[in-house]
Write a structure and sequence with these properties.
Layout (H helix, E strand, L loop, with lengths): L9 H5 L4 H15 L5 E4 L10 E4 L9 E6 L8 H16 L8 E5 L6 H7 L2 H14 L2 H4 L3 H12 L6 E4 L1 H8 L5 H5 L21 H14 L14 H27 L4 H17 L6 H12 L15 H13 L11
Parallel strand pairs: 3-4, 4-5
Antiparallel strand pairs: 1-2, 2-3
Helix pairs in contact: 2-8, 3-7, 5-7, 10-14, 11-14, 12-13, 13-14
Pfam family, one: CTD6
Protein name: ABC-three component systems C-terminal domain-containing protein
Length: 341
């Protein structure tokens, strides 16, 4: 009998993140708040110029509309002393021509913002007044600027709408992160339910071309006198039924692939394909008496190879494995026709 303790919540896991891992979380989170971002880049480091994570809304990058997310993984809530230098940095970056002013600049910190900073971020006019006052009173070295640059930043800040600055609460960030394909991999838990497989459409799509062509090669080898084509295949009930099963399997695997795209991190489904390939390739390359025998043995083998360690196993079906074989055939990673002597 094993005894496990209480579950560790996402917030508790995040408390132990490194600053770099926190930035990775923020980048993942940003994929859900605006799916239309053209690109999201993690830029945190010693020369990030005030942008830990940059989310671009156009293909112009920093020269077009963008949002900036500033990650601060501190053991205490952020205060004004933490925020002010970062605000100076981003405004100085604009004045210096490194980028245009972002549409939104948000602080994200596991402990959130302290009461004073939270209040200021909720009152943009007062926030700007506080910033200008601090900039006037700070020594240039304290603000990280020379005297002339300090004046330029001040002039720009005085004309800037400070509604651009805001903060994101951890509870809200975690809830939004649940909608990303990264959440289960990062925090555990069941995968989102998989939609019902709708089955193969009546018309063969061009995306099926290669695996269908491979199947037809197998059929023609087995029944050479028939001169089989896709049009005449239906006159052979046994072959027509076999062909339909393969298409159903292919579309089952396609259904899993599309679901994985939204439910798990990129590359997860491709890793499953690689595992299936590794499990069947020796069978595919062994000696066989016919192409149909090779095809049949590979499909049968795919149904009992051990894939229990894979993240998608809990929502996969037997047909998915056979369908993955046809996906691999679609890319010529598996071939069915025996070499002609």
């Amino acid at each position: 009998m094993s005894i496990s303790g209480p579950p560790v919540t996402p917030a508790q896991r995040i408390a132990f993140y490194s600053p770099e891992e926190w930035e990775h979380f923020i980048r993942e989170w940003a994929t859900a708040i605006r799916p239309s971002y053209i690109q999201i880049k993690r830029l945190g480091g010693s020369n990030d110029k005030g942008a830990d994570v940059a989310a671009f809304k156009t293909d112009q990058g920093f020269e077009g509309a963008w949002d900036c997310f500033q990650g601060k993984h501190y053991a205490k809530p952020l205060g004004w002393a933490d925020a002010f230098p970062e605000m100076v940095k981003i405004l100085n970056g604009v004045v210096s021509g490194h980028y245009i002013l972002p549409d939104s600049y948000a602080f994200l910190a596991p402990k959130g913002c302290g009461t004073g900073l939270n209040r200021l971020l909720s009152k943009p006019t007062e926030l700007r007044e506080k910033f200008l006052e601090e900039l006037d009173n700070a020594k240039p070295a304290t603000a990280g600027l020379g005297r002339a640059q300090n004046a330029k930043v001040r002039d720009f800040a005085a004309a800037t709408d400070f509604t651009v600055f805001k903060s994101i609460e951890l509870v809200d960030a975690i809830e939004t992160h649940r909608a990303t394909p990264y959440h289960v991999a990062r925090f555990g838990g069941p995968l989102p339910p998989r939609p019902a497989v709708t089955g193969a459409p009546g018309t063969i799509h061009r995306s099926e071309a290669r695996y269908v062509a491979q199947l037809m090669e197998v059929y023609r080898e087995a029944w050479p006198a028939e001169g089989l084509t896709l049009d005449t295949l239906q006159s052979q009930p046994r072959l027509a039924a076999h062909f339909q099963r393969q298409r159903e399997s292919f579309y089952s695997a396609e259904s899993l692939r599309l679901h994985a795209r939204d439910a798990v991190p990129p590359g997860t489904f491709e890793a499953l394909q690689d595992d299936v390939h590794s499990g069947v390739v020796e069978i595919a390359e062994a000696d066989h008496t016919s192409s149909m025998e090779r095809l049949t043995q590979v499909l049968q083998t795919s149904t009992y190879i051990n894939l229990s360690a894979h993240a998608l196993t809990t929502i996969s079906q037997t047909d998915d494995r056979k369908g993955i074989c046809h996906q691999l055939a679609n890319e010529d990673r598996l071939t069915w026709l025996l070499a002609q002597s």
